[in-house]
Amino acid sequence: PFVDWFTYGMFYLRVPPRILRKTLCLPFPFQMNSCQATDMLAWGFDYEQSDPETLPITLIQNSDATSTKTISHMIQFVNNGGKFQQYDYGRKKNMEIYGTPDPPMYSLYKFRVPVYLIRGENDLLSTKE
């Protein structure tokens, strides 16, 4: 895809945001509070569970790269109503790869590991159900 030309196939989330986070979050208390406010806008408001002094360290240390294909697959998951299926390359390439025009669903019964779904009370990306 077009984005691969700029990203070499990955979104490297560490360098530019890391510089931005260091500028926003360190070293003064007002910067730590701005960092906390930014984090809460994205993930929900809970002042009791957020320590502005440790938040910059957490944000700087816990960012990493991911592939453009992974991002694209996540977007497909959202756009196709949450169907848990393999990557959609388009009808023609799906026929070559999967032998069907649509990507096959993942066989969840083959997973033999315990799965725990955890959400926070202020989690804006999930619901209790």
From TrEMBL:
Protein name per Swiss-Prot or TrEMBL: Uncharacterized protein
Taxonomic source organism: Ignelater luminosus
